[in-house]
Design a protein that fits this description.
The complex is a heterodimer of chains A (845) and B (426). Chain A has 37 helices and 26 strands. Chain A has 845 residues and is α/β, with parallel strands linked by helices. Chain A folds into 4 domains: 186 residues, Rossmann fold (3-Layer(aba) Sandwich), CATH 3.40.50; 176 residues, Rossmann fold (3-Layer(aba) Sandwich); 132 residues, Rossmann fold (3-Layer(aba) Sandwich); 193 residues, Rossmann fold, CATH 3.40.50.2000. The longest helix of chain A is centred in the middle third of the chain and has 18 residues. The two termini of chain A are 27 Å apart. About 6% of the residues of chain B have low confidence. A 7-stranded mixed β-sheet of chain B has the order 3-2-1-7-8-10-9, sandwiched between helices. In chain B, helix 9 links the parallel strand 2 and strand 3. By secondary structure, chain B is an alpha/beta fold. Helix content of chain B is 54%, strand content 12%. Chain B is elongated and about 135 Å long. The chains are: A alpha/beta (845), B alpha/beta (426).
């Protein structure tokens, strides 16, 4: 069982280092240290520097987390941020599979107002220490706001699965005053801290203590506080009513912190009772001094008018000191027959009780002994904790939702024979994904797909989607920067769904749509631009564009027109995710890397032979459409220099030439002029099988790019999965490929005219060093097996597609509100940003 | 720790939270006062004496005390609690106030810097206006048809020549100011067609050249009685259409010619800004119709097919870099001459080819093509003022083909054909 508990009691300013805080600290450290079965999660939203783990010996069953809400907990105080905290808690519960959430101090202050719907599938318990403010509401809750708040907390306790009352009287009060059902409440009592124990005190130590506080004879001790409920004045009055002999024999030592006015007031009471000389106010004492007082006192008097749990009683017992207490609330229940019970409202009754005990040493001894026995039986933490753990374990846990029927997913994508990397991608993804769900594929007009799918994958014409869309758990749109995707735009914009963004920048396609296909529809072009850029910038751009009709595709990256319509976005790289989030943090984005299919590796020499190359010839190859952005000209130049030194190299362009006439002329001229005709091969369009074979026979793969539309490269994934050494450059998502599995050149921007030379150097070093090629190839294969396996990728897809739509807890608007919040301290920003990021519930991996 | 932090998202949110609010109120000193007030009000007055001076008060005092006794143990915890909260809150407010103060002083600092910048810029603009006036005066004099003014211009010209080799700090200032003035003029004159027209009346004229080369030529034309608006020119390495152009001044007056520049961006601009001229977007070389590499630098007029020259420029000025390398078609100087000036060489030939000057001069068939005036760059690119340097090779070569150096501007030499018939007429 996973049990999470909050920090309200241990760290709340009203309870930290005080009764409730100490109680909870003892309770939980004890529970965690003695429980070898359950796991405990401490969710701290109050103090960054606090580490509960310092008190924990059983670390294996303990996890501690801090969610930063700002030095002054600005995220918790302000109701405007309520949902952010809710979302963060919800995520915390889900990610850690919490079974029980423990509210340690529901009335700790106006911090978190827990909401029922944050705790779906989680049992909630809370400790109730007392409902004194409600019982004495005229004194404590006369303020309407305070009353409203208190009652809201009470209401939130109604949906808790269990309330743990710390005493019988608290339970009775809950039932009697607030009408809680009896079966909702368990009594857990409380324990005494091990700090409190019988000490052997030297005479010198005693003298020093007496001297410090002006004590001259045996004393009756009491503790409490300024709150009138503690009845210190009643006790002093009662002390004054003691027989003269006793007053002469004993002093009354009031051990607690008192403010100056309270001190004056109590002094006045003492004076009036003619015992001003006999009453000693210690004011603040250390924990150790308190312990000495408990040990040295002849009697501990605690005639409080109401206590949720009278801790001083058990503390005194632990030090072997007899106790007098009141016959009310929890005090009589805890005291039982082991303490003298008196009427707290009657000084006479208190005085009688004290006199009876103090004048009879045997009686004092008897009460001390009975107290120790009762303590051992009920109020040792190990017993209390064992009981709490067993109560927690008896709570029936929520049933986890069972796997539902296989969902159906709609899938918009081009398919083969359309010559696009995305066609091939989709075929593979659909094959892997249809193990988990049924898939309906929606395709464009005017072509017949040439691929085969299993039975639960059906292909439809896109117009049929409108009548069928309700049956789908989600709809996927495979989007690239080409005209093949135009047909799916209207469906994405109308029905939303999950957008798989293969190219970050869709400007080229958008330009084509508005200017080429729609015959210079400037209004449409403006709309497409406005989804990403402010109107004034769009206007400026269009003014220039109208003159030149030359789009500035790389400078003005576009995608918002589609991305803003998607419920969920899948990208292949962190770079793309980051750019999307910079525009809008509320976007729901998952990074799912491109996949690779992991097949057994082929023999390079055999493959070479098949295509007529000698086994020892070194094949250098670039794959996919041959385009200047794949750096073919610097590659040619580098290859030319390489060949000057090593005749046994061959350059292969495995793909179709996609060049302007001019570039094509340049390309062939270069090959011709440098006598490379026999050393360079261009294959033209090849199918996937050939593609694989060409990779297999290659010794050094080149996968360079500049400029980039932020696309990921399917070729690169295939190269890695085939265990080949590859030269790439620092651009976009390529940068995320670890340096240890490839040769990574600086970006073209950084290299400038040294590009060809850099390629040459890399080629030279790899041609001369076959073992380095092998090493990189092995590393690439291992990486592919671990991170790119299509079955892993399909699982990630499925998780995204079935995650359901979720409203973002943090939006750009909320960020603005927080940014402009007067309570925001600059130093808090990183921490708060962390909490906001967490509350957004996005999966970073 | 079980919280897996999404650092990318966290950083983005932190950045957004760190942006300055759109409207932030000025820091308010009254706020501190109100804090003090709050601290004062936190003092508990429950224990002050109840006055009992008059008889009425004496009677009421026990009741009051009773009341107090009844109420204060209910009220006091609330009060203490509230005080505790208040003081915590006040501490926080103080921190916030300090934070605001820090920000405020930062803003003040930035404002101060801004003011200083503005003052500096105002000072500069005053100097600029002054210089502009003086220049205009000089130019007005120059346009004057009177002999005495010519003498003055001659003196000016001599002063230019004398200044060769010993240019002082003032010259550096002059040059940069001149550039700025030219920029200003380009902006004001070119953006305003009305102004352009007015200028065209020649009430005052401006030089577009780097160091007054066009004015020197104008003087030559004047003496030789050649109408500056009717001359023809060949500008090799034309670079910018207007800015630092040795031929634009004549273009404005109606002259036309051929502009050659290998940089396609500049060639495009030349065609747009000087539609009357023929623009050749090719690179001069020893052979026409070849494809060669051309290094485009981000600095003005420094692009070159010569890799070494490009690297030299970058070494000189690290702010420069190679913007891109393009393939460009070549053309020979004689092909240009034969095609565009088959009968008579242009009156002005300007050569600014970033270290390729000598190569090109060598290729010219001076027996056939003899421009009256050749302006040729005589120094290699420096990021500082070049003093005491002038390419002796070019000087010598020009002598050998019958040209005399008429003027040297510190950057360019103006050569004149000693055998020109215009000279003989005189």
């Amino acid at each position: 069982m996973n049990i999470a508990f909050d920090a309200a009691a241990i760290l709340g300013p009203m309870s930290k280092n005080r009764g409730i805080g100490n109680y909870t600290l003892s309770q939980f450290t004890g529970m965690i240290n003695q429980d070898r079965k359950n796991h405990y999660f401490f969710l701290n939203m109050l103090e960054k520097e606090y580490h509960l783990s310092e008190f924990i010996t059983n670390q294996a069953h303990f996890t501690e987390d801090f969610l930063d809400t700002g030095q002054n907990q600005m995220l918790m105080w302000n109701p405007a941020y309520h949902d952010i905290i809710g979302a963060a808690i919800r995520r915390y519960l889900k990610e850690n599979q919490i079974d029980v959430f423990y509210i340690t101090s529901p009335f700790a202050g106006p911090y978190i107002q827990y909401e029922k719907d944050w705790f779906e599938g989680v049992r909630v318990v809370a400790t109730v220490y007392d409902i004194i403010p409600y019982v004495m509401k005229k004194q404590y809750l006369s303020d309407e706001n305070a009353y409203q708040w208190y009652m809201r907390v009470v209401e939130s306790l109604r949906w808790a699965d269990r309330l743990f009352a710390i005493s019988e009287s608290v339970k009775t009060d809950l039932i009697e005053y607030l009408h809680f059902p009896e079966e909702q409440i368990n009594i857990i009592w409380g324990g005494v801290d091990e700090h409190y124990q019988k000490l052997a005190i030297t005479e010198a130590k005693k003298r020093a203590l007496f001297q410090k506080f002006g004590i001259t004879k045996p004393f009756v001790m009491c503790t409490g506080g300024e709150d009138g409920r503690k009845n210190l004045d009643g006790l002093i009055h009662a002390f004054g009513l003691l027989p003269k002999t006793l007053k002469e024999k004993y002093q009354l030592v009031v051990v607690c912190k008192l403010s100056e006015p309270a001190l004056q007031k109590l002094s006045a009471v003492a004076k009036k009772s003619h015992v001003e000389k006999e009453v000693v106010f210690t004011n603040f004492v250390t924990d150790d001094e308190l312990l000495l007082f408990y040990n040295l006192a002849s009697l501990m008097a605690f005639p409080s008018k109401y206590e949720g749990f009278g801790l001083p009683i058990v503390e005194a017992w632990a030090c072997g000191t007899p106790v007098l207490t009141a016959d009310n609330s929890s005090l009589s229940q805890i005291g039982g027959d082991a303490a003298m019970l008196v009427d707290a409202d009657s000084p006479r009754s208190i005085a009688n009780g004290m006199a009876k005990m103090l004048s009879d040493p045997a009686l004092l001894n008897a009460y001390a002994r009975k107290g120790e026995e009762r303590l051992k039986k009920y109020y040792r933490w190990e017993n209390v904790n064992a009981q709490i753990i067993s109560l927690l374990e008896k709570i029936p846990l929520c049933e986890k939702p069972s796997a539902s029927v296989k969902p159906c997913i709609a899938f918009f994508t081009p398919l083969p024979p359309i010559e696009s990397g995305i066609s091939d991608y989709s075929v593979d993804i659909i094959h892997a994904l249809c193990q988990y769900c049924d898939i309906d594929v929606y395709i464009d007009d005017n072509y017949e797909p040439t691929c085969d799918f299993p039975e639960n994958v059906q292909i439809f014409h896109h117009e049929e989607y409108a009548s069928r869309h309700k049956r789908y758990a989600d709809t996927v749109f495979q989007m690239g920067n080409s005209t093949f995707h135009f047909y799916m735009y209207e469906y994405l914009r109308k029905y939303h769904g999950t957008l798989v963004l293969h190219d970050y920048n869709l400007h080229e396609a958008f330009y084509h749509l508005a200017i080429v296909k729609s015959n210079r529809d400037f209004q449409l072009y403006a709309d497409l631009l406005t989804a990403d850029y402010p109107e004034e910038i769009v206007k400026q751009y269009l003014d220039i564009f109208r003159e030149q009709i030359q789009p500035d595709i790389y400078r003005y990256e576009l995608n918002g027109w589609l991305v803003n319509q998607a419920d969920h976005i899948i990208v292949h790289s962190q770079v793309a995710r980051k750019k999307l989030l910079q525009r809008d943090v509320a976007r729901n984005i998952s990074v799912i890397p491109s996949y690779a299919k992991i097949y057994p590796l082929a023999d390079t020499a055999l493959c070479k032979e098949k295509y007529g190359f000698a086994p020892d010839q070194i094949i250098i190859a670039a794959f996919g459409g041959i385009h200047p952005t794949k750096r073919i000209f610097p590659i040619l130049e580098a290859f030319y220099h390489l060949r000057q030194q090593n005749e046994n190299v061959h350059l292969l362009f495995a793909g179709k030439l996609v060049l302007t006439e001019e570039d094509q002329a340049l390309f062939h001229a270069y090959i011709h002029e440098h006598q490379l005709t026999d050393a360079v091969t261009v294959t033209g369009y090849i199918n996937l099988e050939q593609f694989k074979e060409y990779i297999d026979m290659t010794d050094i793969c080149l996968n360079l790019r500049y400029p980039s539309n932020g696309e990921t490269s399917g070729s690169l994934m295939r190269i890695l999965s085939r265990g080949k050494c590859v030269i790439i450059n620092h651009i976009g998502s390529f940068s995320e490929i670890p340096d240890t599995i490839c040769i990574k050149l600086p970006s073209v921007e950084d290299l400038q005219e040294q590009e060809a030379d850099a390629i040459y150097q890399a080629l030279k070093s790899l041609t001369e060093n076959p073992s380095r090629r092998d090493m990189l190839g092995h590393a690439a294969r291992r990486f592919a097996e671990q991170h790119l396996d299509i079955h892993e990728i399909a699982k990630q897809y499925y998780a995204v597609l079935t995650a359901g739509k979720q409203e973002p807890a943090v939006t750009e608007e909320i960020l603005k509100i927080i940014r402009d919040d007067a309570n925001l301290i600059r130093a808090d920003i990183p921490g708060i940003a962390g909490t906001l990021a967490y509350a957004l519930g996005r999966n970073p991996a | 720790m079980s919280i897996n932090q999404d650092t990318i998202l966290q950083e983005i949110i932190a950045e957004k939270l760190s942006l300055l609010p759109e409207q932030k109120g000025e820091s308010n000193p009254a706020m501190l006062d109100s804090l003090d007030q709050m601290n004062l009000s936190a003092i508990n007055h429950s224990y002050r004496d109840i006055p009992a001076d008059t008889l009425g008060e004496k009677i009421i005092k026990p009741f009051k005390r009773l009341m107090r006794r009844f109420t204060f143990w209910f009220v006091e915890p609330c009060v203490l609690q509230q005080n505790e909260y208040n003081s915590a809150n006040n501490r926080f407010s103080l921190e916030a106030q300090q934070e605001i103060q820090t920000l405020h002083s930062e803003i003040q600092e930035i404002r101060k810097q801004n003011t200083e910048m503005q003052m500096l810029s105002a000072k500069m603009s005053i100097q600029l206006t002054d210089m502009q006036k003086r220049l205009q005066q000089a130019e007005e004099r120059q346009t004057d048809q009177h002999e005495s003014d010519r003498q003055k211009i001659k003196a000016l010209q001599q002063a230019y020549q004398q200044s060769e080799g010993k240019l002082s700090d003032q010259n550096i200032m002059m040059q940069s100011l001149r550039k700025q003035i030219q920029k200003l003029e380009k902006l004001s004159y070119l953006s305003d067609p009305a102004m352009l027209k007015q200028n065209e009346t020649d009430e005052f004229r401006v030089s577009f050249s780097q160091s007054g080369e066009d004015d020197i030529i104008r003087y030559i034309f004047d003496v030789l009685n050649i109408h500056p608006g009717k001359c023809r020119y060949l500008d090799l390495g034309a670079n910018h259409a207007v800015h630092l152009s040795n031929t634009y001044g004549f273009y404005r007056e109606g002259a036309r010619g051929v502009l050659v520049d290998a940089n396609p961006v500049l060639a495009q601009e030349l065609s747009e800004r000087r539609p009357g001229d023929i623009v050749i977007n090719k690179c001069l070389s020893d052979q026409s119709g070849k494809q060669i590499k051309f290094y485009i630098l981000n600095g003005d007029g420094l692009s070159t097919p010569d890799e070494a020259a490009a690297k030299h420029a970058i070494e000189e000025n690290p702010a420069l870099s190679i913007e891109k390398i393009i393939m460009t078609e070549t053309i020979t100087i004689n092909d240009i001459m034969n095609q565009y000036f088959p009968d008579k060489a242009p009156e002005i030939m300007n050569i600014d080819l970033e270290s390729m000057e000598m190569t090109i001069l060598h290729m010219i068939n001076f027996k056939k093509h003899r421009p009256l005036i050749i302006i040729c760059e005589m120094i290699s690119y420096r990021n500082s003022l070049t003093i005491g340097e002038k390419n002796p090779e070019i000087l010598q070569f020009m002598h050998s083909v019958g040209y005399e150096e008429f003027a040297f501007t510190g950057i360019n030499s103006v050569f004149i054909d000693k055998m020109a018939k215009e000279l003989k007429h005189k």
